[in-house]
Amino acid sequence: MATTLRPENAAAAAPSFSTPSGIEVPAVVGPEQVNPESIGVPGEAPFTRGIFPDGYRGRRWTMRQYSGFGSAEESNERYRFLLGRGQTGLSVALDLPTQCGYDPTDPIAVAEVGKVGVSLSNLSEMEILFRDIDLSAISTSFTINGTAAIILAMYIAAADKAGVPRAALTGTIQNDILKEYVARGTWIFPVKPSMRLVADSILFANEQTPRFNPISIAGAHVRDAGCTAAEEIAYTLCNGIAYVDELLRRGGDIDRFAKRLSFFFYVHMDFFEEIAKFRAARRIWARLIQGHYGAVDKKSALFRFGVVCGGSSLTAAQPLNNVVRVGIENMAAILGGAQSVFTCAYDEAFQIPTEQSAELALRTQQIVADESGIANTVDPLGGSYFVEYLTDSMEAQIDAIMTEIADYGGAVKAIEDGYIQMRLARSARVKKNQTDSGERVVVGVNKYASEEEAVQVGEVFKLDPGMRNSVIDKFNAVRDQRDNAAAERSLELLGRAADGEDENLMPYLVDCCHAYATVGEMVTTLKDRWGEFQEPPLRG
Amino acid sequence: MSLAGKRILVAKPGLDGHDIGAKIITLALRDAGADVIYTGLRKSPDYIARVAVDEDVDALGLSILSGSHHELLAQTRTELAARDAADIKIFVGGTIPPQDHQALIDAGAARIFTSEMTIDHVLAELELALTETA
Prior knowledge:
The complex is a heterodimer. By secondary structure, chain A is of the alpha/beta class.
């Protein structure tokens, strides 16, 4: 006989409910818990309901799958495959040597050539990567930080060579060095010269490639490392403040550069908290840009962001469960108002996605876009008592963390001292302990786990083992064939400009790229002058 | 069970910058009473072996999420052997595909740890492995 759970027993047994950021979740939320004035209308301050009056009707989000591995030739082939299947933007993953500023022949780099992305050691590789792809017709996103200024210079040089006007280039380069010191770890130089490179590239791009987003201030990596959604937004907005302050110090005009700042976050599994964090973030950023910095152009205050769904919310155990997780996260991203979405493949927790799993990840977005109907009206959750309550609560919690960091001395100091790193380590341990204890449920891992693990879920993508040698051969051939005197001269001029503090280094980097100077050569030239970042001691 | 007094080096070989797992393990080992050294990011196998020998460690953990685990384990083993320190137990942690686990064990790893294992499980396995003779 079935047992019926009587309401009074259910209430007695119920634990207290809260979101992963620790916000209390009432059983029922009523109108008295909502501040109607903070809701507003879409496209108008405070932008709770989105940055556009017509939501996704005017412009659907960009479906931007992160891919790229091995050689430029293989990646070019994968890009043309994805463009042919209806993907609307390209996203370039770079290998670690390119990200950390080493040539593929460097002893510390050899084991990593082409491993987590494509190797782009010089202009010749960039030309191969975009062969038969019209740079003026696509939007390209580069996930690169430590060497972002160099890769942007290389993309511009490739456009120059292809006869594409610089002003026609669209896309985004991550270029957010501050979070690299906290998570992800592809820093090269100390914080201050790194901030100079970020400002140089943003100011140069505003002028030369006005449709290109020269920075994507990212909370995604810190989040995936284990912080809460509220911390993710707070750290990212604090980094945003640090960049704005640096740009203003360099003479930038808030109403020129602010409209090209964009953001990037993870979407994990707590559906409503994820939606609420984006609604809260839009409000806080608009208040900062208009209220604190005095921007007058409405576009300056628009909080535009891309997201990635999946990451550490995915599991290697029972990998097909990840298809469902990514679908739920994708819906949260759209209900939160994202401008671009990357959906992880279900096998990404343990391998480079296969063509089949990569296609399914894209199809997930297409089903959300074309079948679910959730994008047909603007901010369908606006005015929901619970969502508005959660948005207000997230805003308060984010504000409190931002105040703590401001009181510490701001993001740059907090990162140089290892303070944010310590906060992150603490949060990550709490999350790990909650998962270990089962307090935080992960289906297939700490609940409903299978006795027998199915190891293979499909074909396993294998990197071409000869790829590394071919990358190195091509690299050596370019160095043999280029005009060495011109390359050396361009590096010398770069070094001289870096010795001073006033000049924008971007024109020098573009010249270096045109002369086929390599990423390793450019980085070494700067490292000789600036040194390398030294990690603060681990605290937890 | 206790890891008190054990000397352990947690290292990040190669260029991979994902360090939160290494940091969590370092802090958990410290709490369990072990004497732990964390190298920080971007260390060469040569450097890691040198520190392991200089610090006279019982165990060495390699945290790798870049897919280069086969190469980096082999290089580290070679560097340890060159210093007569092949007896130091090596643990590999990170994003390691299940189909690679056996190959790493065959190549000399004492255990493979992945992010879905509980900290208690990792500590218990580590302690057990340290009592095993090669």
